[in-house]
Predict the 3D structure of the following.
Amino acid sequence: MKKKRRITFNSPVILSFVIISFGVMVLNYLTAGMSNRLLFSTYHSSLLSPLTYVRFFTHVLGHQGWSHYIGNMMYLLLLGPMLEEKYGSRAVIEVILITGLVTGLVTWLIFPNIALCGASGVVFAFIMMTSFTGFKEGEIPVTVILVAFIYIGQQIYEGIFVQDNISNMAHILGGVVGAVAGYTLNKKK
């Protein structure tokens, strides 16, 4: 007897994030960038505006272009389902929200002339979380050390020597959030 194959919605948080981000991307094109400026980028705006607080979280959904979107979504689709299966949907949502808040606040506080959008901080949080999947109490896996060293070294190098529109600060902060989450979540198990 042959078993029927079926398609499953295996990672609800990650798949929802990818779909919502796709909708935000389409909306950004339809509004000629206005939706990103209004809702899906964080920048130094008045604390009297309620949208300032919304953007601290929603900036992770916006992207500057299709290559930016596709690059981030590929990593999320590769890493996210494994993390969601291991730690649960709630933990993954919390990491996304915390990463958005931390990168949004730091951008608002320290970089008043920068607008930040994209899921890169979340991607790097997931990269660091993934390196902790084999973590056991009292041990530090060599993979964690290597990923942290290579990753942070690359971000510092690019932050100093490469002039581009990439927020290395968001990558580093996302990595820190992911490392703390990975350590904490594995320590609880």
